[in-house]
């Protein structure tokens, strides 16, 4: 199999969309990620997978904290901004959850301390111990096969 076939196959798995943020020297840094999952309930742990070449990896290592912002359906532009797909955009406003920058109106804001990291292939898995969480009730932003999607209403 070649790289394109592997990427296409992995893209068939529909995911939510997150923006991972951190703060270093007073500056907020963020990146869009869909490689995110919960790991453990006790203790409460999550994991994000970050490419070795991503600038965000070093920023999280420097700060020792990060947040995962699970995006709502109306936050597609934010996903594109933090993926580097939108160059001319309005300034992004942040709130803080337990001292870590978060995106307002996200479905969930999860503030974490780095618990461990593991290099696997060309990515590092960052394990975060959840220190605070805030949840909203809205529809999620979904990504599948290279496109943003919305959940369909349940048919009865």
Automatic annotation (TrEMBL):
Residues in Flavin reductase like domain copies: 10-150
Keywords in alphabetical order: Oxidoreductase
Pfam family, one: Flavin_Reduct
Primary enzyme class: oxidoreductase
SMART domains: Flavin_Reduct
GO terms for MF: FMN binding; riboflavin reductase (NADPH) activity
Keyword Oxidoreductase tagged: yes
EC number: 1.-.-.-
Signal sequence annotation: none
The protein, known as: Flavin reductase family protein
Taxonomic source organism: Neobacillus novalis
Source species taxonomy: Bacteria, Bacillati, Bacillota, Bacilli, Bacillales
């Amino acid at each position: 199999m070649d790289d394109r076939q592997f990427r296409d196959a992995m893209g068939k798995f529909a995911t939510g969309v997150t923006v991972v943020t951190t703060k270093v020297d007073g500056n907020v840094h963020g990146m869009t990620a869909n490689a995110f999952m919960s790991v453990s309930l006790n203790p409460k742990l999550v994991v994000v997978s970050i490419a070795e070449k991503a600038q965000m990896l070093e920023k999280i290592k420097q700060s020792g904290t990060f947040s995962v912002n699970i995006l709502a359906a109306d936050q597609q532009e934010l996903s594109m901004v933090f993926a580097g797909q939108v160059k001319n955009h309005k300034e992004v406003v942040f709130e803080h959850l337990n001292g870590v920058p978060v995106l307002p109106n996200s479905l969930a804001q999860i503030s974490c301390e780095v618990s461990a990291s593991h290099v696997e292939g060309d990515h590092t898995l960052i394990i975060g111990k959840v220190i605070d969480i805030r949840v909203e009730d809205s529809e999620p932003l979904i990504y599948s096969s290279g496109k943003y999607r919305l959940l369909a209403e349940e048919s009865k």
